[in-house]
Each structure stands twice: as structure tokens, then as C-alpha cells.
Amino acid sequence: MKSFLRWFLDHPLSTLMLYLALILFGVVSFPRLKGEYLPTILFPEVRVVCEFENISAEEIERQVTVPLENVLSGVSGVKELESLSRQGISSILLRFSWGTDSYKAALEVREKIDSAYPYLPHGIEKPLVFTERGENEALFILVLRPKEGTSIQELDRTIRYDLKTRLMQVEGIGTVRLRGITSPEVKVLLDPDTCTAAGLALNEVPSLLASSVFELPIGKVNEGGKEHLIKASTDTVDLSALQRIAVPVESGSFLSLGEIAEVRLGHAERTSFFSYNGEPCVGAFLWPSPEEGTLNASRTLRRELTDIRRNYANDIEIIFLEDGAERIRSAFRELAISLILGSAAAFLVMVIFLRSLSSAVILLSSLPAAIIPIFFFQYLFGLSLNVMSLTGIAIGIGMIVDNSIVVLERIQGRRDHAAIAEGVLEMGSSTFGSTMTTLLVFLPIVFVPGIIGILFRELAITISLLLIFSFLVSMSLTPALYVLISPKTKESSSKKIFDRAESVYGKLLHALIARPFMIILLIIISFAALFGLAKVLPKETMPSVPEGRLQLSLSLPADTPFDGVEAAAERFLQAVGEAEGISGGYAYTGYEADNPLERAKKESSLNDIFFTFFYAPQTYQREAILKAHIEREAAILSVGKLSWPDSSDPISRLLSKGKEIRLRFSGRERENVLQEARAYRSQLLQEAPESDPRLEESGGYTELRLVPDQLACRNSGITPSAIAGTLKGLVEGSLVGTITLRDEEIDIRVQIAGYDRLSRRQVEAIPLQTQNGFVKLGNMVRFERLPKQRDLYRYNRVPSILLFVKDGNNTVQTGQSSTTGIKRERLDQSSFAESMRAIIGTFAIALVLMYLFLGAQFESFSAPLLLMIVLPLSACGSFLFLTVTGRSLNINSGIGILILFGTAINTTIILKASFLHSRNREELIRMAGGRLRPVFLTTATTVTALLPLMLNGSPEATLQAHTATSVIGGLLIGTVLSLLIFPALDYVTKHGNR
């Protein structure tokens, strides 16, 4: 090892060039890293979606969902099955254990589906299989607003085919979904009275029209030695030609289609809308491709939008409404500012106390030498540049220079290479020990399974790399630069201060050693403060971060027509948008008609409206007032049931820990499950009305069931199925062909006039042709009213329903009913408990590894226990600073405490290494006092480096401010208590108070 060190000392310029090369690799790698807010998360989940148009939710569940569940439950490794059945579609979500390759699981799922598909109902679409990713929210939202004088209907083809395709061609954009778009459709609206008067049966028109609108390849003919294709086609090139189609009537004559029906260009049934500031627009929701990352995709999209806007400037105004990369940029910017300010503050501290600019420069050089090469290794390991990894860098600034300070302090004044190497080796054991103990704290995180491991693995890897480079720099670059620069130290007032501090410190140690009960008293007080502060300290999953926007949803009754949903959204947007502080907002609902995956999600219901309102940063403190105003407006307008999202923080959502408690009721019989859930909801309302319990019921509605009169059908010579088919074709409509308009193939649909607002009485008046002439439908059938649910949920192959209760209610109970067998499970508690078990397990493993390493380093069973006394003392300081600054105990502050455990123990390691072979009290006190200067400098540089991060009041730095507060408080209090308690305790345990 000594010869290895001598090489760096004998070749200082080569050493410098080596680190400059590593820095260059890091600089080149930095722009190639993917920029994300959080590490990329691939959930071990597979979703199966199956469409069966126009089939009720009950039939979908019985004929599709249950058979598929029975087959898919046999997929290897599946832990949970969740299903949703709604009209026309079935969705089944399969969850696997963390670590499962979802793509391999999807292959097995497809094999199971292939074996089951032949046994599903005839005419059903083959089930589709999708792998699940992390966030469901689109990261980019564009508003496509028609220019004055044009409408969405006029621009639908331009948006659907041209603009959407252009957006998908942008490098880095993986998915584009449109909401608010309308697809054109030619409507042939039959007039029942006119048709009946002409003796024309309504159900005959679709087949007659289909035979008059077609384009059919016939074959080939040879003419003049050349081969020609023959195609038969009707001459329907526009709506007027369609209106002229002759329809035979009872008298033997013909009527034109335009005489018995209104023929016009309309739009297909709408499945979504989007409103911006109360104005109907089209919303383009974009997701970045996983390969490019959010930052690169945003950068490319903004650049390409310049050309896109220019190309569509005459028709469409394109507004970049939401940019998911902005949050990342803001977080990166705040972290970069804190990093620069922290580095400057640490440099200033070093200059003041070392009284040598060259020595401070040597120490400052360890920052770029340790930080910048990290980007190269992140690139090699396929890591992204995210808030977690940057937090590791920002928190690690103060720790990086610690090893170099200890080494430089030891070799000050030495000029001979052998003496310098000797000094470096003397401190190598302590710096290696402190580096390893910190590494051992983070090593277990790399192996933690589940969401916790994924979220914090990159943080652990980044800090671990920083610590390794910090140690290598202190052992190589720092002594090499010392040889190159040969700094000269000056006698200063700081030395006199340290001399006086050592004198006072020695007296305090002497008093503590002489009075062991004072040591015990200090420890008892520290532990009492630790438990007391832990009890009163606010606790939450993640700190609350104001984002400048409010998100909420409104659930309308299931029988609300689409026009009513849209009108309610526009009224609410207008009412809330007039509030002081609100700068705008948008609303949307529904899904893209040709996207079964979107349609299969719970949130795609056409009766659930999602709102986002923006407010200025200066009104952050008025967020609660704005929420109260929105709730009042919802109550006044009575537009629906208002609900706030479970959490605005993505980490809390990933951990299933939000502002509401979620209870799942499940059992064999759906009716019993519903009754149990409703009864428990009523009980909670009586016991704690403020808990505001609400069921996940999709909204009940009344289904009108048409039941043909068998006797009347037999007497009229018409079958019940013919009645149902006729009515279906007239109300829902029949597609009879296509027509080319505006260079686009557009469907032709035949329907009865007023199909979108038919009353029951009008349906009963629809004429049916029988062998006895025309008879009103009402004479052939009767109607029955049946209560129905829009969506049917199942969990692990049995019916289920969720109950949401406001958090803070401790009266909720879980378990299984002994009478009904209904199981009640608290989801947020189980998911978060699993995460907390992983965190606690990580702490426990880290402590065990730390004990084992320290025991090996000092060849002792008891020494590690004394060294680790600093851990609870430091935690006490963290809790105190969190309480004083009004911050909470959360995952981020917990990370700070974890970091603290790895750094605070460095003080006791340095002290132990210095008086390891002390023979008496005076020698121990003298040696401990000699370590006061490096301990102070390492603590001061770490604290000052983190201080800008702690004091940063911007919302973007809130998460990291909690981490910095934990570290600073723990270091300050823990270092002081360790300096006092550890040397005295170590001496008393060995020699008593002699």
C-alpha cells in the first residue's frame, strides 16, 4: 500500500491528469443520461382487456371476466387478480411478485388466453395483453384550439390523421392520445311517420341502402393485350347522391332516400371531451418513450412545436399546457443552486479555519474529482438522472471533503514523500473505516425488494459511488496536489481558538470521567428527548409540496347523458375560474374510441370529470382557501360528488399511502358484499361524520328491459329476436357502408330520427311491420325496470368494493365477518406496512453490518457498541431540528437519518483511532483534544454545504430540505454529544473512574 501511495506522490502530475480524464468522461456522459423525476419503475403487472360490444356489465362478467379469471389464475407467480366489468369491455389486472419479468409473464398470459379463446362467446374480440408502467398521468398536455371561424368538427380529420401523426413522429414521444375529438359519420335519420305512410318497414331501409352503397372488386379482363382490374361501384360520391338513392315503397313506386330520411354529415357517438378555460378544445395527451426520458422528450417536443405551429397556424392554435419536465427542471435547478452555494460555503469555512487558500483549493478540488466521474458510471450502469440521484449528490457534498480534510490535516507541514505517505497511511485506517461504515448503511438498500428498493436504489448507488471516490481522492489526488502546490500554513487566530477549545474540552472530559453518573444522566436525557420528540413530531409519507395547481374530480350520476356531463363541466370551470387567484383550468373525461386500454381503466368512465386549476406561486399559502371555495361552488351547483386525489405526490401514490384510508370488502355474493359495505359506511357516518366515508360504487342506474309478448308475437308472425334486432338497428343504428368525403372513408349509419333523445313513449310508438300490417312496438312488448351498476369489480375471483375514509379516522376495523364471510381489508395500511417493513429491515441490516465491520476493525465485541452510541444521540438531534423548523418525519427525513447514521459515527471512529493505545486519563484527553480540529472541520464543512439546501424555501426543494434538516441537526447535536460522552464512556468502561 505504501509503494502504491508513493507512486501518486512521485507522479503528482500524472495523478492529476488521470482525474481530469475521469472528469472528462463524466462531462461527456452527463448530457446522455435520461432525465426523470423519479427512477424508471416497471410494475410486475399485466393487464388483459377484452371487448364485447353492446353487452351489459353483468353479461360481460358472467361470459367473459369469470372464465378468463379462472384460466389466468393458473399463471405462474400471480399474486392478485383485479377485474373490472363494464358495458362492452372486461379488464383484468394480474399482479406478480417484485422481480418478476412482466414481459415473460405476458407471454404466459397470452398462451393461457389462446387456449381459452375458442370457448369464449362467439363474435367476441380476442383479448389484448398489456404490460403496466409507472405513472398513468400524461407528462405532456397540448391544447389544440380551433382558430376563429373554424370548429373541431371541421378539423377532426386534420387533427386525427395529420397532427397526431406528426406528434408521434417527434423523437422521444412514445404515445399520443386525443380527448375531445369527434369522428365524422354520415347520419341517415329515418322519419317513422313518413316510412309508415309509404308502407315501408323501418328495418328494411338498412339492407336496401347497403345494396345501393358498395364498392366490390370483380376480377380481371384482357383488352388490347393489357390486363385490367374490374371494380363495381355505386355512384355515391357526395351527400346529394346519397339522398337521390331510390327506395321502393308499398305502392310499387319509388321514393328518394331524402324524402323519407334526413341525410347529413354528423359525428359518431362521442367518447370524450376536453375543455380549456370553459372553451371546447381538443386535448393531446403525450407520454415520452422509456428510451429517451422525460427531459430529452420535452426538449425535442418544444423544438419541434415551432415547426408544427407554423404548419397549422391558419387553423389551429397549439398551447403547451402541461410539461412534466418542468417539475424536473425546477428540482434540478434548485438542487444545482444548493450544490453551488454549499460548495462555496464549505470552501469559505476551509479558508477561514485553515488560513491557507492553497489548502482550501486542494480540498475543494475533491468535489469535482468525486462528483463528475459519477455521471460516467451512472451512464455505464444504465441509471437515470433524477431527483433521487441528485439528492444523493447534494447531500454528499459535505461528506466528500471529510476524508480529504482528515488526510490533509495529518500531512500539513511535511515535505518528504516518505513522511507524507506515512501520514496518509496513518489516517487511512480511520478514513477507510468511516467510508465503509457509511457504505454499509446504503448497501442493504440495493437489495431491498419492491417499490422502496426501486425508488431509493439509485440514491444508494450514487452516494456509495461518491463515498468510494471520496476515499480514493483523499488517498491519491489530495496528497498529489499537496506535493504539487506545497501549501504553507499560517499561524492564525483560529489556532488560538482551537487551543482554548481543547483546554475547555479537556476539563469537561476530566469532569465526566471523574463523575460517571453524569455520563449516564446525559445518555438518559438524550434518550428521553429522542422518544419524546418522536412522539410529538408530525408524521407523513412525503412532505406536502405545493405545485401551483389543484386537481379534483366530479362524479355524476351514471344515467347522466353525455351532453349533461359536458355542460356540468363547463359550468364548474366557469364558476371556479372566476375565483381570485385562479389563473385558468381545464377539464376532460372519457377515452379515445379506438383505444381499448384507455377504455378499460377505472378513470375512463364518461361520468367522471377530471379538473385541473392553476394558481399563481404567490398564492401558495391560499391553497386551503381555494379548496374551500371550490367545495362551496360544487355544493351550490350540485353538479356531482367532488373528490380530491388521494395524494399529489407521486411517491405517496406509488406506496399506496394517501390522504384516505381504503377498505376493500370482498365475498362470494355481490349483494352481500354491497350490503356489508353500505352498513359499515352508515356505522362510520354515525360514529365519525367527519370521516366522510364513500363507496366506490360506479353509480346505479335503471335499465329498461324490453320483454316481448310471446302470444302477440305468435299472432303477428314476428319473432322476439326480430323485434329486438329491429329496435337495436333503429336506436343504436346500423352501419351500411362508407362514402368518400374530403378524401376520407366515412361510415354511413342508419338510425331513427331523434335517436339521441328518444323517450320511452316514442320507443313504444315505433311501427313494426307484421303479417297483419303495421303495429306499434308498445303493443308487442312490455318494459321492466331493473336496477343496475355501471361497473362491477372483483378481487381474486370474488366480487369486491372499496370504501374510502378520510385519513385520521382510527375507528376503521378489518377482519372477516363470521356470519356473512365478507372480508374487510385495509389496503393503504397493508401496502404502506410492507414498505415500512422494508425500510425497518434496511435499518436493522445496516446496523448489524456496521457492528460486524467495526468489531473486525477494532478486534472487539464491545467497542462497536460504544462507537454506535452516537446513532441515537444523532437521531435526537435530527428530531429536534425537524421539530424546531416545523418539518415532519417522513421518507425524506428518514433518508437523512439513514445518511446520518453513516456519517455521524465517523466522529467516534476518529476519536477511537486516536486514543486506541492510550495508557491513562491524561493521554486519552490529550489525544481526544488533538482530534477536535479535524472533527470540527469535517462537521462544519458538511453542515455549511447542506445549509443552503435546508434553508431553500422553494417548493421544488421541499423534499431535499427535509433530508438536509435531518443530517444537519443530527451532525450538530450528535457530534457535540459524541465528543463529550464517547471518550469518557470508553475510558470508564476500561479503567473505571481511576
Structure described in brief:
The protein is of the alpha+beta class and 994 residues long.
Describe this structure in words.
Keywords: Membrane, Transmembrane, Transmembrane helix. The chain crosses the membrane at residues 335-354, 361-381, 387-408, 437-456, 462-485, 517-537, 836-854, 866-885, 891-911, 932-951, 963-985. GO terms for molecular function: xenobiotic transmembrane transporter activity. It comes from Sediminispirochaeta smaragdinae (strain DSM 11293 / JCM 15392 / SEBR 4228) (Spirochaeta smaragdinae). InterPro entries: AcrB_DN_DC_subdom (IPR027463), Acrflvin-R (IPR001036), SSD (IPR000731). The protein has 994 residues and is an alpha+beta fold. Among the domains are: 1-32 and 355-489, Multidrug efflux transporter AcrB transmembrane fold (Up-down Bundle), CATH 1.20.1640; 45-131, Multidrug efflux transporter AcrB pore domain (Alpha-Beta Plaits, 2-Layer Sandwich); 186-199 and 228-267 and 701-789, Multidrug efflux transporter AcrB TolC docking domain, DN and DC subdomains (2-Layer Sandwich); 493-536 and 860-994, Multidrug efflux transporter AcrB transmembrane domain (Multidrug efflux transporter AcrB transmembrane fold, Up-down Bundle), CATH 1.20.1640. The chain is 53% helix and 20% strand. It has 33 helices and 31 strands. Strands 1, 2, 3, 4, 20, 21, 28, 29, 30 and 31 form a 10-stranded antiparallel sheet that branches. Strands 5, 6, 13, 14, 15, 16, 17, 18 and 19 form a 9-stranded antiparallel sheet that branches. The chain has a 4-stranded mixed sheet with strand order 12-7-24-23. Helix 2 (12-29) crosses helix 12 and helix 11 (324-354) packs antiparallel against helix 12. It is elongated. The model has no long low-confidence stretch (mean pLDDT 83).
